[in-house]
Amino acid sequence: MRSRTVQPVRRYEEKVKKEKKIQYFDYNLLVVIIFLICFGLVMLYSTSAYSAQIAFGDSMHYFSRQAIITALSFVGMIGISRVDYHFYAPFAVQIYGLAFLLMALVQTPLGVEVNGAKRWLPLPLGFSFQPSEVAKIAIILFIPYLICQMGEKKARSRDGILRLLAYGGIAAAAVLFLTENLSTAIIVMSITIILIFVVYPDTKPFVKLLIAGAILVGAAVTFFSVYFKNSDNFRLRRVLVWLQPEAHADAGGYQVMQGLYAIGSGGFFGKGLGNSTQKLGVIPEVQNDMILSIICEELGVFGAIIVVVLFGILIYRLMFIARNAPDLYGSLIATGILAHIALQVTLNVAVVTNLIPTTGVTLPFISYGGTSILFLLIEMGIALSVSRSIKLSDT
């Protein structure tokens, strides 16, 4: 009688110990991505219809191109989400090298120059491709691979950190000198530093580095503004324009000033969707990095808050995936994607509000740019793939 009672209890205990695991998929992240894509397409059409009609005789020009690329990229994202993210580890070095090769091609006769910047490679059907976007995803896959290859202990050592910084610095330098894209170079290097920060146990060196960097930047800005007022260097001119946009309205400050006018005229609830006046040829290339100013004009501060909240939810979901990934490689990949999105959103908002000099950073999922949306959705597909590997207890 006693044995009959003990056996079911033991079986129950063994069943509890062997909890059933269920596969997780971050549908919350997927929904936020869809919201951002749809919102971005609506705002892109509202922002670009007038300029597209004037330039191409078709108000749907920018919208239709972006919609086609977005639809194809979304399908690709779903496919990538079903691929085990460990698949990319053996090819991380090759992807890193491919980024250099593609950026080097920009300096050949194949390179396409747009608005004075030579950063693109031509594609069929009138499309173009920006190789510097490959550098972002290359560093997101390559640095975590290096950290896992070295092991956490070695990666935290002085030699390990210097090695990681060297690879990130080389990639950032290639972006800067091969594609003349300072903003992307900053993002690539910042992603590297953030990934090192995640694996390094002590935060004090990073705080000191941040303070020292802020002091150095402040001193450099003051020095340049005093001694290089008449410089012909376009990057120094951007700093001068940033400091005094009103005084340089005819030499770079015009776009910034008009963007600020658009933000101020929108008030809290805006003029209404489609009712912007600053988009009517006043702000140059408004569908690109200045699209947030039109969002503020048409939807007001309330609309801008909604955008920031959506990005906040997106970043939170990526943080959830990074914290719950089953291994270090998946966690670091999700962290790298999170860092990219957070950095790009922060830089774009700072540029539009004139908190930093203009850098040409687009607003993810919303600004016009086929290469940008393609690689953003590739990154989201990889993040969703990491989320699939998370196992939850069925309790």
From TrEMBL:
Keyword hit for rRNA-binding: no
KW Lyase (keyword) present: no
MF terms (GO), sorted A to Z: lipid-linked peptidoglycan transporter activity; peptidoglycan glycosyltransferase activity
Membrane topology label: Multi-pass membrane protein
Catalytic reaction equation(s): [GlcNAc-(1->4)-Mur2Ac(oyl-L-Ala-gamma-D-Glu-L-Lys-D-Ala-D-Ala)](n)-di-trans,octa-cis-undecaprenyl diphosphate + beta-D-GlcNAc-(1->4)-Mur2Ac(oyl-L-Ala-gamma-D-Glu-L-Lys-D-Ala-D-Ala)-di-trans,octa-cis-undecaprenyl diphosphate = [GlcNAc-(1->4)-Mur2Ac(oyl-L-Ala-gamma-D-Glu-L-Lys-D-Ala-D-Ala)](n+1)-di-trans,octa-cis-undecaprenyl diphosphate + di-trans,octa-cis-undecaprenyl diphosphate + H(+)
InterPro entries listed in its UniProt record: FtsW/RodA
EC number(s) stated in the UniProt entry for this protein: 2.4.99.28
Gene Ontology terms: cellular component: cell division site; plasma membrane
Tree of life domain: Bacteria
Transmembrane regions listed in the UniProt entry: 27-50, 62-80, 87-107, 127-148, 160-178, 184-200, 207-228, 290-316, 328-353, 365-386
Pfam families with a match to the protein in the record: FTSW_RODA_SPOVE
GO process terms (BP): cell division; peptidoglycan biosynthetic process; regulation of cell shape
Keywords: Cell cycle, Cell division, Cell shape, Glycosyltransferase, Membrane, Peptidoglycan synthesis, Transferase, Transmembrane, Transmembrane helix
Protein location: Membrane
Top-tier EC class: transferase
Family membership: Belongs to the SEDS family. FtsW subfamily.
Protein role: Peptidoglycan polymerase that is essential for cell division.
Name used for this protein in its record: Probable peptidoglycan glycosyltransferase FtsW
Organism annotation: Hespellia stercorisuis DSM 15480
